[in-house]
Amino acid sequence: MTEPDRQPGKNPAKPALPRTAIRGRVKILIMTSKNNTISLLTAALLLAPALAWSAPAPVPADSAAAPAAVLSHDSALFGSQAALDTVTRTIDVAPGMKRLTVASGESVAIRAGGRTVGWTFLQSINGSAMNLAVLMPGVPQARDVYVFIEPSEIYRAG
């Protein structure tokens, strides 16, 4: 008996597949890997904001207005911390006060309950309002006070 001709790299126990079947399997593998990549990318894009939002807001190391309590990311929707030596005015929150009005882009120091926070408000197209407790968490006097941000002069037409 003669030994059948063996080709290097071929397994005689496995039957040879037609070329179309091999192409089909490769195509399925490529499609599966693309779908997995798209699924992973979609999951990463959906989870990234949630993970970033749950982290505490960064506090500048050289800021004189370092908070006693960590600010939430909600505060970033209205502006950012400002050093107390750069503010244009100081607002004292008196007992019973219900509202403060600030200009868009204005840097102010807000004093309430023995605590002072320097803040630069973002430019607001139509104006905005926020609870002062967002900037001063843990200060009971700030809980019922609302800050009204006037519409920006930059975005007005004419």
Summarize the biggest pleated sheet. 4 strands, mixed
Spatial strand arrangement across the major sheet: 1-5-4-2
What Rg is obtained from the alpha carbons, in whole angstroms?
A: 31 Å
How many domain regions? 2
Helix count from the secondary structure assignment: 1
**Average residue pLDDT:** 74
Run of helices and strands:
HEEEEEEE
Query: What share of the residues does DSSP label as strand, in percent?
Result: 15-25%
- Name of the CATH architecture of the largest domain: Sandwich
Helix fraction, binned, reads: 10-25%
Structural class: alpha/beta
Poorly predicted runs: 60-68
The CA-CA distance between the termini, in Å, is: 100 Å
Task: Report the top-level CATH class of the largest domain.
Answer: Mainly Beta
Task: Describe, in plain words, how this protein is organized in 3D.
InterPro entries: CzcE (IPR031560), CzcE_sf (IPR038674). With 158 residues, this protein is of the alpha/beta class. The chain folds into 2 domains: 42 residues; 77 residues, Sandwich (Immunoglobulin-like), CATH 2.60.40. 23% of the residues lie in helices and 20% in strands. The strands form 2 sheets. A 4-stranded mixed sheet has the order 1-5-4-2, with no helix packed on it. A 3-stranded mixed sheet has the order 3-7-6, with no helix packed on it. The longest helix has 36 residues. It is elongated, with a radius of gyration of 31 Å.
